[in-house]
């Protein structure tokens, strides 16, 4: 679901590592000077913004660029958060980077779109670690020349809502309809996550006074993972032979506890901490952010996300398209270029198996570069590589698989935030039995449901947010309107009949 939020911190750390590993010492230091400049007025013109974030591809435009600049120093496939940070760091190091995006807009899950007079974000619902001088805040300040601004979201940023279905999920729609007609609310347990570790612990203890030991042990584990992450990132800085030696000999566990902590799933860790099913559901509530059920999610992945949000969350002023709007001009200023509607069909390799270029799907054009970087995802990248070098077969044999699908519903409301009393917070609503909460069970049962039986029971997980209430510029951009976003799991097979069709 909100995988973009979950990966921003990791993307930042690994991009810093990439800057160290990829560039010769003779390269320009991308952070040698403070790049922040006075904040410019927000650009409200849709046409002016589209000129930046929708640079359409054509063969003639590509040829013109290559004639003027020569072959790029690197080609980046995709334009999501990892691609943006990497391309911009390389540009600041003096490299010419060509970014190729298959969609009609730059940004990946950090883009926004307009529909029927409303604006919607696709992936960035909230971002942590932007309220003080963190490494991630530093990175985005430098990569946008100080132009990307942040608005702090409500301190009670997440509210967990556990709706009691009384073990009658088959009658859920009848129950909802009955409460709607009566104007009453569904019976539920609610608990909010607050900015700050101790504040959240105190809030949890109001609902779970007898579970203080389990709650504090959980937060101690979060601290342990935060410390262990330094070692995990440190591995990325090491020469490959040294990292391989540490891993194969097991000495890596003396260097960092990250890999030991990664051996247990979120469900396993919570089962060891407490028998209270309601508390376990509350502590696991935001597994939808990374799109993996608690039973399948490494505890460290969940801990990294929770740590990321621990001291409060923020939202990019102007919406998520601000990432691409401020980063890609820096790439172009260094002699690079970005194109949308430029899907890469194949990564071209030489006889020794090294990547030396890419082939475009649209017209078969081959573009050469000494470095090819893919931000297209593990499976997509493996499928682009020639069979002789692709790890796809070994990935399948080792059990690597895609995560659960996600579906978003974008709602435009013809009243303002003030009129509807909307707040910049988020609700995680689960449909489950009181005292017997089982997020793994209800989620698995839902995604296993055949497409023709989708209406036979409830959607057990709903993430509900109001992006318009988080952006201080919204009312000026869209007066008299507001927006809501609803996100949930889905099974990709439900939509397979439309796999190769256009829907708009």
Q: How are the strands of the biggest sheet laid out side by side? A: 8-7-16-17-18-15
Structural class: alpha+beta
| Biggest sheet descriptor | 6 strands, mixed
> Which spans of ≥5 residues are poorly predicted at pLDDT below 50?
1-8
Mean pLDDT across residues: 89
What's the alpha carbon Rg, rounded to whole Å? 24 Å
Beta-strand segment tally:
18
Number of DSSP helical runs: 20
Shape by Cα distribution: globular
* CA(first)-CA(last) distance: 22 Å
Q: What is the helix content?
A: 25-40%
Strand content: 15-25%
Question: What's the short version?
Answer:
With 504 residues, the protein is α+β, with helices and mostly antiparallel strands. It contains 20 helices and 18 strands.
Explain how this protein is built.
- The structure is a single chain.
- The longest helix is centred in the middle third of the chain and has 26 residues, at 212-237.
- The chain is globular.
- It has 504 residues and is α+β, with helices and mostly antiparallel strands.
- The protein is 38% helix and 18% strand.
- Helix 4 links the parallel strand 1 (74-77) and strand 2 (97-100).
- The strands form five sheets. It has a six-stranded mixed beta sheet. It has a four-stranded parallel beta sheet with strand order 10-2-1-14, with helices on one face. It has a three-stranded antiparallel beta sheet with strand order 5-9-6.
- It contains 20 helices and 18 strands.
- 39% of the residues are buried.
- The chain has helices spanning 3-22, 46-53, 59-69, 81-92, 135-143, 172-182, 197-207, 212-237, 240-249, 252-255, 258-261, 266-273, 277-283, 299-309, 322-333, 378-384, 392-397, 417-420, 439-447, 474-477, and strands spanning 74-77, 97-100, 112-115, 118-121, 127-128, 150-152, 158-164, 188-193, 313-316, 337-339, 344-349, 355-360, 366-368, 372-374, 405-413, 426-432, 461-465, 482-490.
């Amino acid at each position: 679901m909100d995988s973009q939020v979950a990966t921003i911190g990791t993307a930042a750390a690994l991009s810093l590592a990439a800057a160290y590993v990829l560039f010769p010492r003779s390269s320009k230091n991308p952070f040698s000077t403070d790049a922040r400049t006075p904040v410019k007025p927000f650009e409200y013109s849709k046409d002016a913004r589209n000129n930046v974030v929708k640079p359409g591809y054509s063969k003639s435009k590509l040829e013109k660029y290559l004639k003027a600049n020569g072959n790029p120093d690197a080609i980046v496939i995709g334009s999501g958060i990892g691609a943006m940070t990497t391309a911009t760091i390389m540009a600041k190091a003096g490299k010419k980077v060509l970014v190729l995006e298959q969609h009609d807009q730059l940004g990946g899950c950090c883009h926004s779109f307009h529909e029927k007079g409303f604006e919607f974000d696709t992936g960035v619902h909230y971002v942590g670690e932007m309220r003080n001088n963190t490494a991630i805040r530093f990175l985005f300040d430098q990569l946008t020349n100080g132009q990307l601004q942040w608005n702090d979201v409500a301190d009670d940023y997440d509210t967990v809502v556990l709706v009691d279905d009384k073990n009658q999920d088959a009658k859920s729609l009848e129950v909802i309809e009955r409460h709607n007609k009566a104007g009453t609310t569904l019976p539920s347990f609610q608990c909010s996550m607050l900015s700050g570790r101790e504040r959240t612990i105190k809030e949890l203890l109001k609902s779970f006074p007898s579970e203080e030991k389990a709650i504090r042990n959980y937060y101690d584990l979060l601290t342990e993972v935060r410390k262990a992450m330094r070692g995990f990132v440190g591995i990325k800085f090491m020469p490959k032979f040294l990292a391989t030696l540490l891993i194969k000999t097991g000495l890596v566990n003396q260097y960092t506890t990250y890999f030991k902590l990664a051996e247990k799933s979120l469900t396993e860790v919570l089962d060891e901490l407490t028998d209270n099913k309601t508390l376990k559901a509350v502590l696991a509530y935001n597994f939808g952010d990374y799109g993996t059920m608690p039973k399948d999610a490494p505890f460290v992945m969940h801990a990294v996300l929770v740590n990321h949000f621990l001291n409060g969350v923020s939202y990019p002023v102007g919406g998520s398209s601000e990432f691409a709007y401020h980063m890609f001009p820096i790439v172009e200023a260094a002699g690079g270029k970005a194109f949308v509607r430029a899907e890469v069909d194949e990564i071209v390799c030489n006889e020794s198996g090294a990547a030396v270029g890419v082939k475009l799907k649209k017209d078969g054009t081959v573009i050469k570069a000494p470095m090819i970087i893919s931000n297209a995802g593990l499976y997509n990248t493996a499928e682009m590589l020639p069979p002789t070098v692709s790890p796809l077969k070994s990935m399948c044999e080792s059990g690597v698989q895609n995560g659960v699908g996600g579906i978003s519903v974008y709602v435009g409301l013809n009243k303002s935030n003030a009129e509807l009393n909307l707040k910049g917070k988020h609700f995680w609503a689960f449909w489950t039995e009181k005292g017997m909460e089982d997020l793994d069970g209800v989620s698995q049962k839902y995604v296993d449901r055949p497409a023709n039986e989708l209406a036979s029971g409830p959607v057990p997980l709903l993430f509900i947010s109001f992006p318009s209430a988080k952006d201080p510029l919204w009312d000026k951009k869209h007066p008299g309107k507001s927006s809501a976003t609803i996100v949930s799991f889905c099974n990709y097979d439900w939509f397979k009949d439309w796999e190769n069709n256009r829907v708009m």
